[in-house]
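Researcher: Quick test of sequence recovery. Tokens follow.
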């Protein structure tokens, strides 16, 4: 399904799903509730235009905030790939006290989330269930056991 188009039309017609699906049917992106080849092609072209983030830089600001820069991977601007389009990084400014908003922004773009806090003091001493054991941890155990 051309999800980008469904989202766009849903925003345009928030309480009218028949208008969303009627428009998709008229465009030929879907037929009934089935996606057509044209709809798959539309989604593929849309995804090809999306910029892919190469890396993110976070710069502190003297007043206490941060600037988050998104640097994008170069994209081919020709069929042969001989010419590359290098887009400028986008900057997002977060002022003092907007740390939570910045972390939400980063988690959205990086696909990360915070680990849950330990429930008891004993659990706090145990390694988190989602973390793999580290080599150094096993070496420290051998040393403490006298091996």
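Model:
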């Amino acid at each position: 399904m051309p999800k980008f188009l469904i989202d766009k039309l849903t925003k345009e017609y928030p309480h009218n799903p028949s208008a969303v699906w009627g428009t998709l049917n008229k465009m030929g992106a879907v037929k009934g509730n089935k996606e057509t080849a044209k709809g798959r092609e539309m989604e593929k072209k849309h995804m090809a235009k999306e910029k892919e983030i190469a890396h993110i830089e976070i710069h502190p600001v003297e007043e206490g905030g941060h600037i988050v820069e998104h640097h994008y991977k170069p994209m081919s601007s020709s069929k042969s790939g001989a010419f590359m389009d290098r887009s400028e990084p986008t900057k997002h400014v977060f002022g003092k006290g907007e740390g939570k908003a910045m972390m939400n922004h980063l988690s959205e773009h990086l696909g990360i989330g915070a680990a849950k806090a330990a429930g008891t003091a004993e659990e706090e001493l145990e390694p988190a269930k989602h973390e793999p054991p580290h080599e150094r941890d096993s070496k420290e155990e051998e040393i403490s056991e006298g091996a």
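The helical segments are 3-12, 17-27, 37-49, 99-110, 121-125, 135-145.
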